[in-house]
Amino acid sequence: MAEHTYTGSFPLHTPGKITKASPSDVRRRNRSLIFSLLFPSNQCSRAELGRRTGLSRVAVSDVVNDMLEEGLIRENGFETASTGKGKRGTLLSIDTTRLRIISIDLSQEHLIQGAVTDLLGLPQQRMEIALGPDNHIDVDTIVQFADELRSDLDVNRIIGIGICTTGVIDRGVIRESTALGWHNVDLKSILERRFGIPVTITNDVTSSILTERFFGQGGPNLLFVRNDQGIGAAALIDDVPVVGESHAAGEIGHISIDPDHGPECPCGKRGCMERMISATALRERMRGLSHDEQMRIIREAGTYLAAALAMPIGLLDITDICVYGPADIINNAFLEAAQERLDRTTTSKFHARSVIRRCQCGTDITLRGGAIAVVRHYIEEG
Questions:
Q1: Which residues contact 243 (CB under 8 A, 6 or more apart)?
Q2: Is the dihedral of CA 25, 26, 27, 28 positive or negative?
Q3: Region Disordered: start and end of each range (predicted)?
Q4: Could you read off the pLDDT of 143-181 as tens digits, one per residue?
Q5: What is the model's pTM?
Q6: Strands 44-45 vs 199-203: parallel, antiparallel or unpaired
Q7: What dihedral angle (degrees, nearest 10) is formed by the CA atoms of 346, 348, 352, 357?
Q8: For the residues of 265-290, what is the DSSP string, one character each?
Q9: Rounded distance, CA 94 to CA 245, Å?
Q10: What 3-state class would DSSP assign to 38?
Q11: Phi, psi (degrees; rounded to nearest 5) at 328
């Protein structure tokens, strides 16, 4: 996997959140600034952090000392002096050895995956539960799963539990998840009462875009599409995730792309994206067909997706479109057809060419993103 070196600000701002400045707010902001310059893999001296943040030497030293003690960062050798004069500064970097996160992925069909990760979301310990076709995920199952992941850890080293799931999530409440069959489930409060640890609930596509941003090839303005058993999207604008008025941004699965002739959808419409171009729907349509016919359907799906994305691409002026999905669906035929349609519908003299590409982050994309979401919350809230 190609790793993208992240040099901008860590997207710590919660959209729509305005707080009155207080000394603790200023301290938290300073901590966020310093953490953002180091995350995920940068190294800076205290002097360099001062130059890049505009903070005084005393302010930098005060925050850095607290972060060292807390286990967020560590000293990591010395900078290379440009001249032979003066003392070399001690380099600081993210500490991956002390603090831990519990990340749980509920987005996969018939499978619950979990991991204990470091601050970069890299799994240090894994666990999974395979579910039969008649098994349904309930809250008790998640509580027991998290308890097992937590059992061998020092509770003082755990900064949070991250849950990734499909559906609409509003401040830790799963408002609607068709895949889980849940409606208005306050999973955050349930888990926090049980474990006494901060819990972050994140939509699976939002989790995935965070992984692509920090450890893939994504930039601060990115449109991300996840296509597997369903289809959903997420967007970053200037490194801030787009949430939406009802916390439902990216729920594109039930946008109809062929309302007159498309297949019927359980939602009551015809031609919804989920019924037409999700990996599950495409595999069903291609079953038993020749290779040529399968490729025709794949190319058609790529064209449909590009047509649906043309409007938000033009509206938001985004040039990087990343698609995550199984290799048999999101293949060269799919991407070439999608790119051809994008070129025809979005390229102009005042809009740079939008490029659609396949995500290379691998199967841990959701788990890792869930851990990053916990880190964001921990740094922002303290």
A1: 15, 16, 249
A2: positive
A3: 1-23
A4: 999 999 999 999 999 999 999 999 999 999 999 998 888
A5: 0.90
A6: unpaired
A7: 30
A8: -TTS-BSBHHHHTSHHHHHHHHTT--
A9: 34
A10: helix
A11: -75, -15
Q: What whole-number distance in Å separates Cα of residue 80 and Cα of residue 90?
A: 10
Give, as one character, the DSSP assignment of residue 71: T
Sign of CA dihedral 299, 300, 305, 307: positive
Q: State the pLDDT confidence band at 21, using cuts at 50, 70 and 90.
A: low
**For the stretch 362-378, what's the b/e string if a residue is b when 16 or more beta carbons lie within 10 angstroms of its beta carbon?**
eebbbbbbbbbbbbbbb
Judge contact between 166 and 177, C-beta under 8 A: yes
Q: What is the mean pLDDT of the chain?
A: 91
**Domains with residue ranges and CATH for the chain:** 23-94 (1.10.10.10), 100-208+365-381 (3.30.420.40), 219-358 (3.30.420.40)
Q: For the residues 353-366, what does the mean pLDDT come to?
A: 96
Give the contacts of 128 (CB within 8 A, at least 6 positions apart): 111, 112, 113, 114
- Here the tokens at position 161 are 């539990």
State whether residue 339 is helix, strand or coil: helix
- Phi, psi (deg, nearest 5) at residue 149: -65, -30
pLDDT digits (tens, 9 = 90+) for 258-268: 999 999 988 88
Token duo for residue 268: 């009551």
Integer Cα distance of 59 and 181 in angstroms = 49
Q: What residue spans of 287-331 are helical by DSSP H? A: 291-316
Alpha-carbon distances, residue 98 vs 35, 116, 153 (angstroms): 16, 12, 11
Compute, in degrees rounded to 10, the torsion defined by CA atoms 192, 197, 203, 204: -130
Phi, psi of 73 (to 5 degrees): -130, 170
| Angle, vertex CA 164, rays to CA 234 and CA 278, nearest 5 | 55
- E strands in 10-137: 44-45, 73-78, 90-94, 100-105, 111-117, 123-130
Token couple for 280: 């599950």
Alpha carbons 100 and 121: distance in angstroms, whole number: 9
Strand, coil or helix: 256: strand
Nearest to 206 by CA among 169, 154, 245, 151: 169
- Identity of residue 122: L
